[in-house]
Design brief:
Length: 186
């Protein structure tokens, strides 16, 4: 009996944890492969742009290709970061800067039907936390809202100072979220 004729032995259904692990590995591999392709695209774009005989109208197009490839590289870096198993690394960060930095990802995830409104605190919001954990939390809130609000809506992310703490309130979601974080001494 050849190996091709041997019956396949079932190992049972995949657990949710195993599915997530496999999805994470697959996503990392796809992001890695895409980065390899983007490196080639950027290399050719740079070589083309370095040609002094390149007509201006083509240089504009090649520069647009380069810009798009850099944007795609940033997205694949985010995928690799989010899918990599890692320990939490709390550090001193400005909460409002982390919220602002996630804006492009939150907008893509929210789609056109959900309006995102960020209301930063009037003063510095230094807190000690892992910014990647916060990014994941913000994306989870948006994903949940998108699923729960198929006709659209508005999500407001507002930070305020309150008695030595920073309050992050997310309203407009099916389950409004409020987090109170101790204000760090700068």
């Amino acid at each position: 009996m050849s190996s091709a004729d041997k019956p396949i032995r079932s190992v049972g259904p995949l657990t949710d944890d195993r599915r997530l692990d496999l999805l994470s590995r697959l996503t990392r591999q796809i992001a890695h492969d895409l980065n390899t392709q983007l490196t080639a695209i950027l290399g050719f774009a740079d070589l083309t742009l370095a040609d002094p005989a390149l007509p201006e109208r083509l240089a504009v197009d090649v520069q647009a290709i380069s810009t798009a490839a850099h944007r795609a590289g940033s997205l694949t870096a985010h995928l690799q970061t989010y899918c990599r198993p890692r320990a939490s690394e709390p550090r001193l960060v400005d909460l409002d800067e982390v919220i602002a930095a996630t804006r492009p990802s939150r907008e893509r995830l929210a789609g056109r039907a959900i309006e995102l409104v960020d209301v930063p605190a009037p003063a510095l919001t230094l807190v000690c936390l892992d910014p990647v954990d916060l990014e994941w939390t913000l994306l989870d809130i948006v994903a949940t809202a998108r699923a729960a609000l198929p006709d659209g809506g508005r999500l407001t992310f507002a930070s305020t100072h309150e008695d030595g703490h920073v309050r992050l309130a997310v309203t407009g979601a099916p389950a409004p979220t409020t987090v109170l974080l101790p204000l760090a001494n700068a």
